[in-house]
Amino acid sequence: MELRITNRHAELSPALKQYIEKKMHKFERYLPNVQDVTIELSTQVLRSKGELHVAQATLHLGREVLRAEVQAPDPFEAVDLMVAKLQRQVERYKGKRHDRRVGRGTLPAPSPVTGETLDLAVEADDETTPMVRRKRFAIYPMDEDEAIEQMELLEHDFYLYQNPTSGQINLVYRRKEGGYGLLEPEIA
Q1: pTM for the full model?
Q2: Phi-psi region for residue 155, left (φ > 0), alpha (ψ -120 to 50) or beta?
Q3: Which CATH entry fits the domain spanning 2-102: 1.10.645.10, 1.10.10.10, 2.60.40.1930, 3.30.160.100?
Q4: Fewer CB within 10 Å: C terminus or N terminus of the chain?
Q5: What is the DSSP letter of 110?
Q6: Is there a common fold for 2-102 and 107-123+135-188?
Q7: In this structure, are residues 111 and 181 in contact, taking their beta carbons and an 8 Å threshold?
Q8: Judging by DSSP bridges, how do beta strands 158-162 and 169-174 pair with one another?
Q9: What counts of helices (H) and strands (E) characterise the chain?
């Protein structure tokens, strides 16, 4: 397991680095397929809450990704909360893998999005909005159930993946009314 610790607007003391390494190496025992772990520490100053330490972890498990982000007034407390959140995700991840192997799926079937159209209105602005964040990630072929499971593990509202049967890029999303939706783009 490769462990990378980065800090932004925060001081990384040797004691804190050693504490993080000790806490994160226990995940090797639970997840032997963990490839790399990225820990990002930063500090934010908010008017209402004062100085907060943010701890964010990303674990790459082959095609799956587990991610946790927490805020706390103390950096050691932030690391402890982040590890606890990751531990819950690992338990859920391992439970879902076991359920799939046994044949008792724990996720509800996605609701098909037939006949539904999305109107995406784009307002023309004379001012150009600068790109705030650009993110690159690998897209793997998987079916709808796997994409929904990955979306739930990441605690996101949507997930982009490649459909193995059609080879197209699809997007599953959580609907406000409950259930899931699927976007299958067509070249116009």
Answers
A1: 0.56
A2: left
A3: 3.30.160.100
A4: C
A5: P
A6: no
A7: yes
A8: antiparallel
A9: 4, 7
User: Which CATH number applies to 107-123+135-188: 2.60.120.620, 3.30.505.50, 3.40.50.1400, 2.60.40.1120?
Assistant: 3.30.505.50
- The pLDDT tens digits of the residues spanning 2-29 come to 888 888 877 788 999 999 989 888 888 7
Beta bridge mates, 72: 53
Lowest mean per-residue pLDDT among 66-70, 125-129, 157-161: 125-129
The per-residue b/e assignment along 14-53, b for 16 or more CB within 10 angstroms, e otherwise, is eebeeebeebbeebeeebeebeebebbbbeeeeeeeeebb
Distance (Å, rounded) from C-alpha 31 to C-alpha 53?
27
Rounded CA separation 117/139 (Å): 25
The answer to whether 19 touches 76, Cβ cutoff 8 Å, is yes
Cα–Cα distances in angstroms (integers) from residue 27 to residues 164, 165, 184, in the given order = 31, 34, 36
Amino acid at 34: V
Nearest partner of 55 among 17, 14, 93, judged by Cα: 17
Delimit the domains of the chain by residue range.
Answer: 2-102, 107-123+135-188
